[in-house]
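User:
Can I borrow your eye for a moment on a structure tokenisation matter? Would you put together a sequence-and-structure record for a protein of your own picking? Please set it down just below, with no commentary around it:
AI:
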Amino acid sequence: MSYKSERAASEKRRRRSRVRRMKRFIIAFIIILFLSLIFSVLYLMLSVNKLDNRIDTLTQVIRDMRSEKQNISGTSENTDFDDEAVRAAQAAEEYNRTAEENLANAEDTLKVYLTFDDGPSGNSDRILDILDDYNVKATFFVNGRTDDHSMAVYKRIVDEGHTIAMHSYTHKYSEIYKNLENFTADLEKIQNLIYEATGVESTIYRFPGGSSNGVSSTDMSVFIQFLNEHGIKYFDWNVASGDATNLPYTSSDLIENVMSDVVKYKTSVVLMHDADNKMATVEALPELIELLQEQGALILPISEDTTLIQHVTIQ
């Protein structure tokens, strides 16, 4: 074979070799690209699946939170603080529009009635200790509890000169307000319990949620008429501290809420709560008493002679 022929054959082999390498490279690139696409699709599918699972989990968490919130503030009728706060504000606003005769003049001596709903609780003794420190008497609208601590609290309220009043035995709206029979049975039960613990036959009542509550399945006039006929006086409130809510009110907020309103009225009935989770109320009480005393207000317990503060009145 001549030199030229050999050179041409060699060049031809090199070209074939380059073509084969190019083909292998292209095939390898295509395979790698295809595999990459497959892996990418699989990764995306897995990511989407994880995202779906997270969404499902979050959705369930939200549902559980909503359910728990309903259980706490909706179906659990012993802890009605959020709903009661709304009703308290609405009722107080309505009362403010209709009780012009109770508006204070500059020369009037203010009468302030501090009232505590929903006890006895773990805070009852703290509240009573503070009242004792300042020699101030208040009113406790109590529920029915028969444990030793609660029975002792009932007695201490009376022994220390405070007014013990009824706030229903169970505080369960659906039971108390179902009909007059249920209401009277509950009333008799709390009245008897108070008498058993203290020897006092209480004739002062506060409706759970107030006389203007919007949750009673029976017209409130039925219950009001019954109390009127049996010589039991019911009291609502015209000043709300704000502790009925689950909002993060500080003790300073509660004091401001009270002090901004008591100056408006000759007679102020202040709504507060005696409950385990109402520490801000306990913390606010000493300063609140001091400010009221500086204002020259008389801080009194509710009695038979106290001016009636009622959201709904039926003769």
The chain is about 55% helix and 10% strand.
